[in-house]
Automatic annotation (TrEMBL):
Residues 42-269 form the AMP-dependent synthetase/ligase domain. The keyword ATP-binding does not apply. Pathway: Aromatic compound metabolism; phenylacetate degradation. Residues 321-412 form the AMP-dependent ligase C-terminal domain. Its EC number is 6.2.1.30. Monomer. CDD domains: PaaK. Belongs to the phenylacetyl-CoA ligase family. This is Phenylacetate-coenzyme A ligase. InterPro entries: Adenylate-forming_Reductase, AMP-bd_C_sf, AMP-dep_Lig_C, AMP-dep_synth/lig_dom, ANL_N_sf, PA_CoA_ligase. GO terms for biological process: phenylacetate catabolic process. GO terms for molecular function: nucleotide binding; phenylacetate-CoA ligase activity. Keywords: Ligase, Nucleotide-binding, Phosphopantetheine, Phosphoprotein.
Length: 413
């Protein structure tokens, strides 16, 4: 992707004092004179930052300003390994609020909306980010947090919420409960802002149809502010990334080489204005592509689009000699008549060989279910390269999550 002249100038200005402000970058770039970075090509020679680097800096080794300028910390939501702690200045929080409000505006949400916020609060950046943007926009925030579905539905009705925010897993759980209780006609929902996990087209359509809303994908990660650095627009063709705050690259996950716009690779992000913990060439492990050309929406020529995430470099599972990503399984479901959006994959080692089972929800029964299972197994073989044992289960049988759903269970190791 071509770096804009103003982005390069911001980076060069930042580099003048980066080593003095940040012990982390003083070590990382100890053999590099940052004043030599004068072009995009120079910038692309700098080493990447990895999550492992950030974990080694625990707890506050990433801090690039004096203590008195730090007003908040957040931490990654991962449940394994040393957490990544990100310090924020007041300017960082203000910038994040500005970006998030812009996300809401891009989705056609205004200060007359009532936004029900179901992501979690606390160290995680989700709930508080959705609220920050809501307050900056001037809309009514209904800060529910996750869980307590009974209360969620009561507030949704009584306070006439017009926007629902959350993970796709929890949005589906709410949609199913609303359908089951026949509440749709009693609601005022019109938009959904969904993020934090990748999800397939069937799941997207189920949520949109059952809630009667227009859905927007929001993007972000704790290391780079949190959710709100990008969102899909009314065209629903990729997510705009706010280029006045973040610079994007797409690289080959194996070689680290730049890929041309349109090719799928790993998203690498650089913060342009972050004070508390600036990040230079941070490997997100998210797989996507830069969508070439301008979008037809009002942000079309100013903010580049990345495609909906196809997965993560660390999502891949190898079974029976085949590489498999969750996005491929979701594509199989999309092409299988009668299969719903919810699935689980079980991988076991039995008598020295891999056994792959795909559980999926379907409303079909008897012979129709058997035909659906056979069709899914055949499409799986054609698209991914190996044949699973496909088992259809009744709708609602697979577990639902109030946060992110775990779908692949590998017991071989």
């Amino acid at each position: 992707m071509q770096m804009k002249p103003e982005q390069l100038e911001i980076i060069k200005e930042q580099f003048k004092t980066l080593k003095d402000r940040s012990a982390f970058y003083a070590r990382k770039f100890k053999d590099i004179d940052l004043s030599d970075v004068q072009t995009q090509e120079d910038f692309e020679k700098l080493p990447f930052s990895e999550k492992a680097d950030l974990r080694e800096a625990y707890p506050l080794g990433l801090q690039a300003v004096p203590d008195e300028k730090i007003i908040r910390i957040h931490s990654s939501s991962g449940t394994t390994g040393t957490p990544v702690v990100i310090p924020y200045t007041q300017k960082d929080v203000d910038d994040w609020a500005t970006m998030f409000a812009r996300c809401y505006e891009t989705a056609g949400i205004t200060n007359t909306d009532r936004i029900q916020i179901t992501p979690g609060y606390g160290l995680w950046t989700a709930g508080i980010g959705f609220q920050l943007g809501c307050e900056r926009l001037g809309a009514m925030a209904i800060p529910m947090g996750p869980g307590n579905t009974e209360k969620q539905l009561q507030m949704m009705q009584d306070l006439r919420s017009t926007v629902i925010t959350g993970t796709s897993s929890y949005a589906l759980l709410l949609a199913e409960e609303i359908e089951k209780r026949g509440l749709r006609d009693k609601l005022y929902l019109r938009k959904g802002v969904i993020g934090s996990e990748r999800w397939g087209e069937k799941m997207r359509q189920r949520i949109a149809n059952e809630l009667g809303i227009e859905i927007f994908d929001i993007y972000g990660l704790t290391e780079i502010y949190g959710p709100g650095i990008g969102i899909s627009c009314e065209e629903h063709h990729g997510m705009h990334i706010w280029e006045d705050y973040v610079y994007c690259e797409i690289v080959d996950p194996k070689t680290g080489e730049q890929l041309p716009d349109g090719e799928v690779g790993e998203l690498v992000l650089t913060t342009l204005r972050k004070e508390g913990a600036p990040l230079i060439r941070y490997r997100t492990h998210d797989l996507t592509r830069i969508i070439p050309g301008d979008c037809k929406c009002k942000f079309g020529s100013h903010h580049p689009r990345i495609d909906i995430l196809t997965g993560r470099t660390d999502d891949m599972v190898k079974v029976k000699g085949c590489n498999m990503f969750p996005s491929q399984i979701e594509e199989v479901l999309q092409f299988t008549d009668g299969a719903s959006s919810e699935y689980q994959v079980m991988i076991e080692a039995i008598n020295g060989r891999d056994v792959l089972t795909v559980l999926f929800e379907t409303p079909l029964e008897g012979e129709e279910r058997e035909r659906c299972e056979q069709q899914l197994a055949a499409i799986f073989k054609a698209k991914i390269g190996c044949t699973p044992e496909a088992k259809g289960v009744p709708m609602g049988e697979l577990p639902r999550s109030e946060k992110k759903s775990k779908r692949i269970f590998d017991s071989r190791y």
